[in-house]
């Protein structure tokens, strides 16, 4: 059976659990196994450039300790900063997909303008750098934060209220035709937010896994 690894580079197991739950519709008989793992050596939340920079070495050490994951059909990095993306592409023979990169491309294909809901204001410059590097800055409506850190995303009333308010601004003030949730830890809120905003809402890990599955299923079809 084909296998896709989805690795959460922070150490918060609740984030991984909600990622796995959000991927349940992608699991079906005969389809790839979706294996969600937590990087226990990571920080509780990846909320700064220092956190991002620390992840490559941690992922490489994790791979040394878990060598069977060299043999999977695809890796998906389930963090919106895509930490360790280049390092893992250098050492792995399979496709390595960053969920932020996948989200930006998916959103660009769905609407003229996309908006991003970030967790913290200090994350926005990192996102803007990646968007510019991808050549998609002309598609960005705005990137706005809710000022809730990763650990506190589990406070559903606080988090959803702020996501709802920021999402409304992105759609009605800035013209976003699709909204990206700028943290893998927001997975549980996607459907509620989409129902409220009446525009497509992208969960980054779902976007990354959808891209990985397209590749893996195409390979399966070829035998």
Helix-strand layout with pairing:
Blueprint: E1 3-8, H1 13-22, E2 33-38, H2 49-65, E3 74-77, H3 85-91, E4 96-98, H4 99-110, E5 114-118, H5 124-133, E6 140-145, H6 156-173, E7 178-181, H7 190-197, E8 201-202, H8 204-221
Parallel strand pairs: 1-2, 1-3, 3-4, 5-6, 5-7, 7-8
Polypeptide structure, described:
There is one protein chain. Strand 1 (3-8), helix 1 and strand 2 (33-38) form a beta-alpha-beta unit. This protein has helices at residues 13-22, 49-65, 85-91, 99-110, 124-133, 156-173, 190-197, 204-221, and strands spanning 3-8, 33-38, 74-77, 96-98, 114-118, 140-145, 178-181, 201-202. The model has no long low-confidence stretch (mean pLDDT 95). It is built from eight helices and eight strands; from the N terminus they run E-H-E-H-E-H-E-H-E-H-E-H-E-H-E-H. It starts with a strand and ends with a helix. Helix content is 45%, strand content 16%. It has two domains: 3-99 and 206-221, 3-Layer(aba) Sandwich (Rossmann fold); 100-204, Rossmann fold. The strands form two sheets. It has a four-stranded parallel sheet, sandwiched between helices. A four-stranded parallel sheet has the order 6-5-7-8, sandwiched between helices. Helix 4 crosses helix 8. It has 223 residues and is α/β, with parallel strands linked by helices.
